[in-house]
Amino acid sequence: MSNYVARGNLSVARELADFVDSRLLEGGGITADSFWTGFDAAVHRLAPRNRELLAIREDMQARIDAWLRDQAGSAIDAEAYTAFLGEIGYLVEEGDDFAVETSNVDPEIAAVAGPQLVVPITNARYALNAANARYGSLYDAFYGTDAIPADGDSGGPGYDPVRGARVIARVREFLDETFPLSDGSWRDVTGFAVAGGALSVALGDTKTGLSETDKFAGHAGEAQAPDGIVLRNNGLHVVIRIDAGGAIGSDDAAGINDVIAESALSSIMDCEDSVAPVDAEDKVLAYRNWLGLVKGTLTDTFQKGGKTVERRLNADREYTARSGGTVSLHGRSLLLLRNVGHLMTNPTILDAAGNEMPEGLMDAFITPLVALHDLRGDSDRKNSRAGSVYIVKPKMHGPEEVAFTNEIFATVEKLLGLAENTIKVGVMDEERRTSANLKECIRAVKDRIFFINTGFLDRTGDEIHTAMRAGPVVRKGDVKSSAWIAAYEARNVAIGLKCGLSGKAQIGKGMWAAPDLMGQMMIEKIGHLRAGANTAWVPSPTAAALPVSR
């Protein structure tokens, strides 16, 4: 392990101490002394409560195990089981109805529905790809996946013109479905012009336009011969790129070279499940990449197709608005950050007694410290235009632990000089005690909550862990189709809506873990939206482009 340096009563790995002092506190108006003094005091106040809450988990589980063992050989009495869970505090009394009061929420969270990516923060290339996945090529997404089955393709080496034609036809269908013309079909379009704030579409010798004229948002290039057409549907943008000299556009009657869809509206930079930081080197890498994202300085260089490629954050997109003047479209996913939960500890920081610090506390103080650079406007690659910091908090057990998270973030805000509830929290509804008490969990963070999210794997795992003394469980496939899973998903949406999340927070659904099965993913994700979700996790930038196409 790294060498430690003293910061008050804390022993801090030199790598982290140097990074905080030289990079995070630079130009921010917070001195190293004030930060470390406040952090030291907060850790020694909050860490014991952290340990206490984990002990409560263990005690409850031991009592549940004992109760289930006592029922061995007989059917579980549901009423008696429910009463027992209430007696031990596992189930809490549900209070009066209320509505969340979260404010200063970006439209990607509050107003517009779209896919959400989750990527490891320690992998710069993946993180940049996700941040840049705000817009994705429908041509690429359909061509390179089984969203269009390969049956009927030529199967030849290199570019397959047969498949290419099928992809173009499918994208034209999407345009017909989403942006229908007053007359004719997008299949027959031969050109575009903009006049008087309206889109004129040529169909050979005739002219038409959009049947819903307000879906035209603007254009790029000259009005009489635009390079791009910007369309908008339900707050999401589609950009038709026109290049008669392009690889695709040269064979297209209208010169359409690509169709770009607004895709991953938000991306979760993950410090938890997709990474495994075990020491200071790992944690500093995560925090450094997060800093690079919020300041717009993160880059990654790699070899692709025999060429050196440098990846960096995309700039905003500017077009001529239909009414004249310039419109700017945010060019990147809104970046959220998933902290570690309450359970883990990490040797990067030791308290006065030599105990490893709860890793969730470390993340809670340092990741918003990084985000200060975004709030101050240190980059032209702005993240939150509403002035918020979005922290996803996983694996909390019940309202007490959620309330503890609220206390932590309130402490962080005070230390960093932030307004109350600047730090927003996403509550992962993935633990049994949280699901059973979801309304009260939401109440505990009603002024800062920005999402609730369901996740099959974690939720099933905790169900098994909690109730395993009751006997064997069914196979995974049977669990996925069980009544309780359906009830869990539906109840999450119902409670979220009842608590007023609509227009202020997301109701999300979990990951699709089969990145090669995009056709099936599109079906499943449609089901998530129909179940009441306004976001759902997808496994890649390509996958993010596909759900908007149906």
Q: Main beta sheet, described? A: 8 strands, parallel, barrel
| Global Rg | 26 Å
Oligomer: single chain
- CATH H level of the largest domain: which superfamily? Malate synthase, domain 3
Under CATH, the topology of the largest domain can be stated as: TIM Barrel
Mean pLDDT: 95
Please, how many helices? 17
Based on secondary structure, the structural category is alpha/beta
End-to-end Cα distance, whole Å, is 51 Å
CATH architecture of the largest domain: Alpha-Beta Barrel
Side by side, the strands of the main sheet go 3-12-17-20-21-22-23-24
Helix content: 25-40%
For the record, the CATH class of the largest domain is: Alpha Beta
Which overall shape is indicated by the principal axes computed on the Cα atoms?
A: globular
Low-confidence stretches: none
Strand content: 15-25%
Descriptive report:
- It is a single chain.
- With 550 residues, the protein is an alpha/beta fold.
- It folds into two domains: 10-134 and 265-302 and 331-549, TIM Barrel, CATH 3.20.20; 136-262, Malate synthase G - maily-beta sub-domain (Beta Complex).
- Helices cover 38% and strands 23% of the residues.
- It is built from 17 helices and 24 strands.
- The longest helix has 39 residues, at 32-70.
- It is globular and about 80 Å long.
